[in-house]
Amino acid sequence: MSKPTARPKPIVLIVDDMPDSIAILSSCLEDEYQLLAASNGHTALKLANEYLPDLILLDVIMPELDGYSVCAQLKANPDTAKIPLIFVTALLSAADEERGFAAGAVDYVNKPISRAILRARVRAHIAQNKMHHELLAFTEELEQKEQDAEKAQRLLNAVLDAIPIRVFWKDPDSRYIGCNRHFANDNGVSSSEEIIGRTDFELMPERANALQAFAQTVIRTGQSLLNQEGAITTHDGKLTHISLNHVPLLESDGSVIGIVGAYEDITQRKHTFDALQDAKLKLETKLEEIVSLQEKLLEAALRDPLTGLYNRRYLAETLDIMLAQATRNQMPLSAVMIDIDHFKVVNDTYGHPAGDEVLKCLARFLSSQARTSDIVCRLGGEEFLILMMGASAENARIKIDKYREDFSKITIRHQNSAIKITFSAGVAVYPDHTESSKKLLEYADLALYAAKHNGRNRVSIFN
Questions:
Q1: HSE on the CB side for 367, CA within 13 Å?
Q2: Domain range enclosing 288
Q3: What is the domain-level CATH number for residue 419?
Q4: pTM value?
Q5: Where does the record place the GGDEF domain (predicted)?
């Protein structure tokens, strides 16, 4: 159990089997502290665990659990072990005091109680305990900041070592105070520590004067020098073309305390510029192909693979947009849920390939009848949905009833079988029935259920 972070008053737990003693102690402390009282050791342990008081005043002589036993249990519990505990007792011998301090008490208050002494000692130990917790918190915060700083330094070093660019930083006298591994390697050493304290005259004397001039200009003006192209000779004698940047290293008050430099090897760039241009053109062509492929994949992801109609995912992405459009144009939007009657019988009688042919036939039929503004979806199984912008409930019912009648006259040929099939439909309308996209589909489904319940091969409007 964690200790509360903020309390109006420090909490003091008084433990004594004598009510008069509790009353006396309470009268001494009630104006400064929030008080808890326990008349036995068991209750004291329970209250200590529940409230985690800032200090405990504990009587030594009590029935069942005496003060020493209660103290031992408190100190054995990590949650209560750090609570300062003062024994309140009439026992005055040195042995008794030694035993109490050995058990973990921080002080003794002798009976009869001196109000001034009690208040002074309670104040002192609560203040000391508060300072102790604040010190612990400060120490933990400091340790965490040190760990964070070390972690940040390790991360920075890892990042600097991972990038192919050579990075370094210098003090105002142009002495190196740090670099990444690549810069160290260019100068013939394996670690950045071997670079620290050295100058350009030691590392690259042929370029030292120019580099010193760059550094001093940045330090004097506080302005960056970017994209300074030149050539250096690495430790193995290789002539390397570089693009060099110098930026000022600033103190919090804006004063320049050094420079940060970085360069990259542009030798290959100079030799392969034309090849890169060609690669750029190829990349642009490839990107166009990828974009085209992504568009095709997206279209495929929004289409039912069997019927080619839009699928449930497309419906989820489109319905709210259509509702917003209907609201903006102040027109209704009808949702028509369609389900093939006795579709399981088709599958059981003629086989699943025949069932697939029925689904495709209905999909083609609905697509051919729908307006360009209508959205026709297959939701799964034998269930379809049409969204009809601008259609009232009655208009949608009349139109879908005509679809139903025309489709019932179609004979579907599959192998040697001639299949005739019907469908049922349910209509729900935004905003007449609901303004919720989820409820709109639910109500259309309920209307479909009513149509099927009332005999199938019919169209019902949600009621």
A1: 12
A2: 272-299
A3: 3.30.70.270
A4: 0.41
A5: 331-463
